[in-house]
Each structure stands twice: as C-alpha cells, then as structure tokens.
Here is the input.
Amino acid sequence: MALNGDVPRIFTKCNRHGVPVYCVALSAAISLIAYLNVSDSSATVFTWLSNISTVSGFISWIIVGFVYIRYRRAIDYHGLNDRVTYRPPLQIFGAYAQSIFFTIIALVNGYEVFFDWNTANFFAAYITLPIFFVLYFGHALWFRNFKLYAPPEQIDCFTGLEEIEKEHQEYIEPVAGNILQKIWFFIV
Here is the structure.
C-alpha cells in the first residue's frame, strides 16, 4: 500500500531481510492495546475493542455490496453481460439487501444506550462510524478526490479480460478420487 502511495512512504522501509519494519512495529503497537485488558476497567476496554471491530466488519460488508452494485452497472454499461462467466440468481437483489441490512445493523448496534443513557457506552457503541467518516473524508482531502464513485464509463472492464476468458476456457474440472473429495467438490 505504501508503494502505491495509499499510506505514508515511511512504511516502505524494509530491513535487509525484506521485512517492512515500520509496518510490523505499528501492528505490534496496536496489538498492545489488548494489554489494557489487565486493568480494572477491562470490561470497558473489551467493549470498545469489540464494538470497533464489529462495526468495522459491518462497514466492510456495506462497501462490498456497494462495490458489487457499481461493478454490475459498469458491466451493463459496457455490454459485457454475455461474457460474465458466473452470475448467481438474485445477486443484485442480494447486494442491495445485504447493504441495507448491514447499514441498519451498524446503526442499531448500540441501541441499548438509548434506554439507559450513558455517554461512555454511547461512544463505545458508535465511535467506529465517526472514525470511518474522518478517515474517508481525510483521504478525499489528502488526495483531492471528492467523487463518491466513478461513473460506469470510467470503469475499466477490459484490462485482463482476454486472459481471464482464456483461462476459463482451458480450465479442466477436477475429478474426485474418493468420497471426501466428492463431498468437497459438491460443496464448492
């Protein structure tokens, strides 16, 4: 990510073995937050960490659904529907449904704070949402890109398409050698 310019350049520094030392140091420093759990307020720390990770997962799924919807619009715009190798039934509906579902879940994740108001619990339940928006708009300000998304005509759907189609044509379905492989191939 640092090589692409998505994070500060300092994270490109590697030692002689190729280990990105500052990335590892930052990850280790963040993991030290878990040691706050040994204090008297361990339940509070656990609640904050649990809510941050849970709502971050919800936000990730919202974005996955949004990206899939944008992908399908680009495919429709470029007229590539007949070249899509696999299209599950109701997939567009599923993307909208999961995006709406996870948005609702992210917003009502801490509903219990409204019944017995506690400011600390409110921030513990909803701190991830402002963090996400600060990071998103901070990124937009830093890179001076205020578009929420690219229009379908600007999305490149052709780079690498021929290689993928060639690989799909050359794919040989694996043959199951035993009952466990048959079950596995049925599941997958």
